[in-house]
Amino acid sequence: MIDTPRALDGLRVLDFSRILAGPFCTMLLADLGADVIKIEQPGSGDGTRQWGPPWFENDSENGTESQSAYYLSINRNKRSLTLDLKSETGQELARQLAAQSHVVVENFKAGGMTGYGLDYAALHALNPALVVCSVTGFGQDGPYRDRPGYDYVIQAMSGLMSISGPVDGPPTKLGVAISDVIAGLFAASAILAAVRHAERTGEGQYIDVALLDTSIAALVNVASNFLVSDHPPKRYGNQHPNIVPYQTFRAAEGEFVLACGSDGQYARLCTLIDRPDLRDDPRFATNPARVKHRDILVPILAEIFATRPAAEWVEKLLAAGIPAGPINDLPAILDDPHIQARGLVHTADNGLRLVGPPVQLSETPASVRSLPPTLGEHTAAVLREVLGLDAEQIARYRAEGVI
What we know:
alpha/beta, 17 helices, six-stranded parallel sheet, formyl-coa transferase, domain 3
């Protein structure tokens, strides 16, 4: 346990979310110091607990528990409380917890919390300063509101897949559930804005975050290109639609990425490869010209880069002040000396390795204070601490299956 001040100390987040987008959002808040209480169904918990292999064998009070790597990736720094929301007692306990919290996060289907008496109107009546954030696939209104929102479907519908993959190949999804991650990031930033408003005014508010909306927002310049030009974007594979040369090149050994983001960098590239003619040729002298004539320039560069190993090119390009880098796999980057120096990979006392918080705050650092909890690990502690229940009451609720 690291005893340092944290940016979100004192902020209590009641987390009804599961799978990825919601838990990723609440983990970001937990990293910054929020007390995130993860509400899980007794006996089963978050569905990602079963999403293995691979597994990590974790010793708990109830013996050894197999925890999936998927679950471990998005649930650090949280406390787990099991609560049966299908029971009236469980719903009442949830309302009491919400009354003592600052934020509620949920990712049930649109309107799903209403059936439990935990919708925004009900919770706002109990706690007017409460911020409630709902994360769904398609939002709380619109013709698609009742559709299930899965990352793969959202990547397809949002246009992300249409611009990803080989030029002459099929649309391709990213290898990670990026739409969930994007939604989680937007949700966390919106929550912090709403909390700031609540601190100033005493008024909470409702936040509606949709995976489809946030994935479209993440298209940034690609969406803007279309809105400005009315020309649907096409796939460029590992090239860039607006910058040349900005892509992967195959070397004599391996591949590397070159990213010339300015005419000055391109001029230095031409000097490096001893081709001043490519710098002075009006077809390539400016980026707009290079974009127009990429089909001529790129094959010339490809032929040159094929003469030396990728590592050699990267070293020479970086020495010349030209952005370039290797194409790493996970073992290579997680063992990279720079990543080690940044402390991004956290190793716990029990041997579990996690990718830790990626942001560095000088005065209130984010940290891995506690490992992802076992199912219901903190149920009794939270009920005692937040609601003041005694051992007899907790034992009775446990016997009734409420917790």
